[in-house]
Amino acid sequence: MPHGGRQMSVFSTGDLLGEYPSNRSVERSSSLKNQMANKTRWRASALSLKIPEFPAGPASGRPVPAVGLGTFSLPFVEEEDVDVRAAVVAALELGYRHLDTASLYGSERAVGEAVAEAARRGVVASREEVFVTTKVWCTQCHPELVLPSLRESLRNLQMEYVDLYLVHWPMAIKPSKPHYPMKREDIMPMDLGGVWQAMEECHRLGLAKMIGVSNFTTTKLKELLAIAKIPPSVNQVELNPSWQQQKLIEFCKDKGIHVTAYSPLGGQFRSKVLQSMVLDEIAQARGKSVAQISLRWIYEQGASMVVKSWKQERLKENAEIFDWELSDEDRWKISQMPQHKMATVTGLLCTDGVSSVDISEVDAVEM
Description:
single chain, about 375 residues, alpha/beta, two-stranded antiparallel ribbon, 12 helices, 3''-deamino-3''-oxonicotianamine reductase activity, NADP-dependent oxidoreductase domain-containing protein
């Protein structure tokens, strides 16, 4: 177990890119409903599923489960998405306790309803047993809109607080409802100091137990740390064997910022991870899946992760990475893999139009 990991006694799009390159509608029709009929069998397996935790934030902060369920999907989730709700309940039955959502995703309502259902059925003792992360989108990254955005998220979640509230991307867009893609001409200079003061107010009010960021480079983190009264507890970034971010990981460790990986399997489309010959060779030799090799590698970096899947078999598989290790040779082979980042600022923006802000200033690419 990596330094700082703790065993639970007996949940962090992926962010802008989902996991497993399968069609979401196919997953819905071919597997989820039939699998739910077998929920008793899955609940029994949850009795032996133990997910470690990583300490994060202040001493009073709550540890972050090493593996959580991501709820980002393209197309975006519909408000009354019963499949997302069922998947969240299934994950909780298996032992997941970290649920990752965002104002952009459209999944907050489904997540909240699933937690309430799980509590009613005794799958969890109460909402307090679940670690919930949500995020403020670029269109609300303005000092006067951060708190109202969190209050709206809490209404969607039907919760009094979130465990972790993140600035989704270090970029401000002309105020509007959260949407994607965004117009280049709508990019505005971001008042990072004012936005972070508003995030700190969310924490002081008890509406966010911890606050953090997402897609922040070391440069952006240095800028934030210079002005923050409450430092970020977490930086959620794209992280996997195809985008290893060693510089950022070391910086965050030095500053006491926990790293959570999104797109731990390389993203929903054209995944360099799932198609990797190196990872496939290691997986075959160890009797594991390529996904498990990637997730285990992330865990060994001292990072937690959020993985999106609506399939119960994969939910279970993704959490079965804690009772074995990669070898030194495995780690060396992975360290030599070509690097390729999927989530960049240009992917968030319409192809036409001209920005008055330097695009490189708001990107998340860092070697």
